[in-house]
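Quick note —
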Amino acid sequence: ALQKQEIEELYARMGKVPPPCIVSPAAMLSSRQRRLSKGGNFPSSRRNSLQR
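Predicted structure written out below.
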């Protein structure tokens, strides 16, 4: 849910409205980049759900 809000904010800054089909892959991409950058601030449960 938090990632979805961040994606909507990014699109709002760019002046675009994210279609529902783009939200899910975008969330996966952002989560991968964030995992690499932060190095594991996520709780183990959320990380497991992302890997599935």
